Amino acid sequence: MEQDKALEPVTLVISKVVKIDKNNAYEAWAKGINKVIKRFDGFIGVDVIRPRDPTHNEYVVIIRFENIESLTKWQSSPVCRSWLLSSQDFIETQSKYQTSDDLEQWFTLPDQDIKTQQNPPYYKKVVVGILSVYPLIMVSNILVAPYTVELPYLLRTLVSVIIISSLMSYPMIPWISKLLGFWLYPNKKS
């Protein structure tokens, strides 16, 4: 069972607060490291969530690898260490790192600790999934369907799935998880 877990995809969430006057330098750095990381074995993808609040310049980077071994190789590589060292000039607050090897990152925000909190029961995750997916399907049917009606059925469905999946991963499930945090994590101290 533990060996199977080592073969599952893993997600690394990194949170950094960038100095306000160093946004352009950080953006250039991020493009460079993202280009390099794509060449590493086991790399699946990277997403960057840029700051929305001009007074809190926090970037959240979500990196996915095929398994924990691939992620560990990347993190311990001289290339990774060199890139991270070169970012020190524009980082105001050091990174928070958080690793998850399941869909738990959908139910956790970057300021929560995945490893110390109890996962919500399966049925609660299903309820959050339904509360996230249903409105997105309805909105997609109302707003997107009229523009894709001429497309072949499979392509229409693909367009809808892409939009729904993108919005479900962020912001829907994190938002609903935060909204229902009292129910998902009843033992967590506020």
Describe the structure.
The protein has 190 residues and is α+β, with helices and mostly antiparallel strands. It folds into two domains: 2-101, Alpha-Beta Plaits (2-Layer Sandwich), CATH 3.30.70.100; 122-184, no CATH class. The protein has eight helices and four strands, in the order αβαββααβαααα. The chain has helices at residues 2-6, 23-37, 68-76, 78-86, 122-143, 145-148, 153-179, 181-184, and strands spanning 10-18, 43-49, 58-65, 91-100. It has a four-stranded antiparallel beta sheet with strand order 2-3-1-4. Strand 2 (43-49) and strand 3 form a beta hairpin. The chain is globular, with a radius of gyration of 19 Å. The two termini are 34 Å apart. The model is unreliable at 109-116 (pLDDT under 50).
Instruction: Give the mean pLDDT.
Output: 79
Name of the level-1 CATH class of the largest domain: Alpha Beta
Amino- and carboxy-terminal Cα gap: 34 Å
> Uncertain regions: pLDDT < 50 for 5+ in a row?
109-116
* Alpha-beta content class: alpha+beta
Based on CA atoms alone, the radius of gyration comes out at 19 Å
- The tally of strands reads 4
Q: From the 3D coordinates, which CATH architecture of the largest domain would you assign?
A: 2-Layer Sandwich
What is the ordering of alpha helices and beta strands?
HEHEEHHEHHHH
Biggest sheet, strands in spatial order?
2-3-1-4
Form type: globular
